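Dear colleague,

Thank you for sharing your sequence with our group. We've completed the structure prediction you requested, and as agreed, I am returning the results in plain text so they can be pasted directly into your records. Please verify that the sequence below matches your submission; if there's any discrepancy, let me know and we will rerun it promptly.
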Amino acid sequence: MKKIGIVVVTYNRLECLKQNIAALKALKAPEDTQLSFYIIDNASTDGTPEWLKENVPEGAKVVEMPENLGGSGGFSTGVETAYEDDMDFIWGMDDDAYPEPDALVAIFDLMKIKGEECCYWSNCNKDDYFKKGFRRVKQWMFVGFFVPRTVIDVIGFPRSDFFIFFDDAEYSDRIVDAGYRIYKVEKSVINHKDSYSDKKVGKFLGKDFDFPSYPDWKMYYYVRNFILRYKKSDRRYWERVLIKTPKLLVKLLLLSRSQVKIAAKAYWHGIIGKSGKQVSP
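Please find the predicted C-alpha cells below.
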C-alpha cells in the first residue's frame, strides 16, 4: 500500500482552512493508498490553533511553527515532516486551495501511464490548454504539487529561506535540471482562491506593459527571490542581475515610484545572497 502525505500550509485564514479541510475529507483515495494529513500552521493568531485541536481529520499531524516563516518555510517543513514519516508521495497546497473529490485519483490514473519517477501538478489555475488530458511543464506552483519520495531522495526539500515567491519555481527547476519530468493533470482540479494577482498597467514609448501590484513587503520578496532563484554559476542568474531585474526597477519607476526604494534594497540583497525573513508583512 502506498502512503500519501497531503501537506497544507496555513496562516491567519481560518475560514479558508475550514473549506480546505472539508474538501480534503471529501477526497477519494486512489486504490491501495493510505492518506495522511499534515497541517503546517505558520503561527496563526486568528484562532486557527484552537480550531485545529477540535477539527483536524483523524490521524492528521499539526505542526505549529514558532513564527510565520511564509510559504517557503511552511512547505519546506511540511515536505520534510512527511518525508521523515516515510510517505511514498507528497501532495501539497495552500489553505485557500480546494481540491475536487477526484483530484488525487486523476494523478494516479496518469501515473499508471507515465510512471512513479515523474512529478505531477494539479490543475489549480483553470488551465484548459490540454490535448490528451495532461501536458509536460517545466514550472509549477506550490498548489497541487505532487512529488515522489524517490525524487526527494535526489533533489532534497524545498528551500525554507525565500519566505514567499519563487520557492516553488526554484524547486521545479531542481526537479527538471535533475532529469525528471513534471506533468500537469487536467482532471486533477483544485479550485484556488488566489490564482491571480492584480496588475498595474502603464505605457512607455507607445507600448503597454504591466507589473504585479503588491504591497511593499511582497514586492521585496518578489524582486529579491527573482534573483535568488538561480545560483551564480547559472547564466540565468546573470541575466536577472544585469538585464531583467533592472528592467523591473524601471517599470516600478514608471508605475509605482514609492516602491523603488524597497525594490532596490531587494535587488541588492539578491545580489549579495541575503535570504531568509528580512521584511515582515
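Summary note from our side: The first strand starts at residue 2 and ends at 10.

Kind regards,
the structure core
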